[in-house]
Write a structure and sequence with these properties.
This protein is α/β, with parallel strands linked by helices and 356 residues long. It folds into two domains: 168 residues, Nucleotidyltransferase, domain 5 (2-Layer Sandwich); 167 residues, Nucleotidyltransferase, domain 5 (2-Layer Sandwich). It is built from ten helices and twelve strands. The radius of gyration is 21 Å and the shape is globular.
């Protein structure tokens, strides 16, 4: 018998709802919040208010597009964290009420795990999915991690940023260049027209598998500042080359660490996930690394790269099979933490390291 899951995603500034039938997506609706553009970034209070306005229409549209009645749903899955607390509260509160009203289970989902599990969405029966164990590079505006997966919910972070995320480096670089928010996609767009070898920027020297992007961001800022002193039109004259060059540097850092992780673990099943996984340079370089290192790679569809509810629903589906349901007392969390799904306990990464 088929299982229908409603997924709700509200971790940042996109309100999304999705309905899946087993592992197939029937609908995936996303409402963006344009209000943040004029501020150059997401304003948490405005985001939570917009979620309140959007959540009911978005869920109604998702059910309508899936062509099912809400009474056919087996469970409602929702993002518990990490993310903006006010935004998460909207989605969590709605899921609680929806669960009570229909008398169906509610399933809490870790946003980062959902990004990874989006690879198990099967829009067609022939789609290939990763084989455990595999490595996944999770890159977004708030996170940059290399995760080792041994099972759907047995995940170990073996590398992470010690400061800024790769997505933040893209957005801050775009801001330095005077590009509007969100700037990451614009850098990718303009980079296609530029020479990525026009300018060279220092790559961070961080040991092991961890990342750092704050130094690169600062270096880029000072470089632009000094060039503008010499030529006030420097950015206008070199915009495409600057976008291509900074993008190349950020992606090189990501790919080098991923190669190192593969060599260290011996794993050749490699995936990427998160908003930055939509970046064309990252996708192209991953394909090159596949040929060079004999990897089997998995690149998500663009619609499953950025924040969306389909990834929440598929994570909810696999938890539903395990009967891992939430209770009405759960509260959303904003911090980046690691879920130990099997023990049903939340553990801080520092605590894990201290107990080794």
């Amino acid at each position: 018998m088929s299982i229908y899951i409603l997924g709700i995603e509200s971790s940042c500034d996109d309100t999304s709802a999705s309905v899946i039938k087993d592992t197939k997506v029937l609908s995936n609706i996303i409402a963006n919040q344009e209000v943040h553009r004029e501020f150059g970034g997401v304003v948490p209070e405005l985001a939570s208010r917009a979620h309140q306005q959007n959540i009911i229409p978005v869920i109604d549209k998702a059910l309508s597009a899936a062509k099912i009645n809400k009474k056919q749903l087996n469970a409602v899955a929702f993002t518990l964290g990490p993310g903006l607390l006010g935004s998460l509260l909207v989605g969590t509160s709605f899921a609680k009420a929806f669960s009570l009203g229909l008398n169906i289970p509610m399933i809490e989902v870790n946003h980062l795990q959902a990004h990874i599990l989006s690879h198990f969405i099967r829009d067609n029966k022939d789609k290939k999915v990763p084989i455990f164990p595999f490595l996944c590079l999770v890159v977004s505006g708030g996170h940059t991690q290399i995760v080792l997966l041994k099972d759907y919910f047995e995940m170990e972070i073996i590398g992470r940023t010690i400061d800024d995320a790769a997505g933040e480096a893209f957005d801050k670089s775009a801001k330095i260049l005077g590009l509007p928010y969100p700037g990451g996609p614009l850098i990718d767009k303009y980079a296609e027209l530029g020479n990525k070898n026009a300018f060279t920027f220092p790559e961070p020297k961080i040991p092991n598998l961890d990342f750092s992007f704050s130094g690169l961001k600062t270096s880029f800022l000072y470089f632009i500042r000094d060039r503008l002193k010499e030529n006030p039109n420097f950015i206008d004259n070199n915009l495409y080359d600057l976008c291509a060059s900074i993008q190349k540097t950020i992606v090189r850092v990501l790919i080098k660490k991923l190669i190192k992780a593969s060599e260290k673990t011996g794993i050749k099943e490699i995936a990427i996930a998160g908003g930055v996984s939509a970046n064309s340079e990252l996708r192209n370089e991953l394909i090159k690394a596949q040929k060079l290192k004999n990897w089997t790679i998995f690149i998500p569809k663009i619609e499953y790269s950025t924040d969306n509810a389909a990834m929440i629903a598929i994570a909810g589906y696999y938890k539903y099979l395990r009967k891992e349901f939430s209770n009405q007392g759960v509260s959303p969390f904003a911090r980046d933490i690691v879920f130990n799904m099997r023990k049903k306990k939340i553990i801080d990464k520092k605590e894990i390291e201290n107990n080794k």
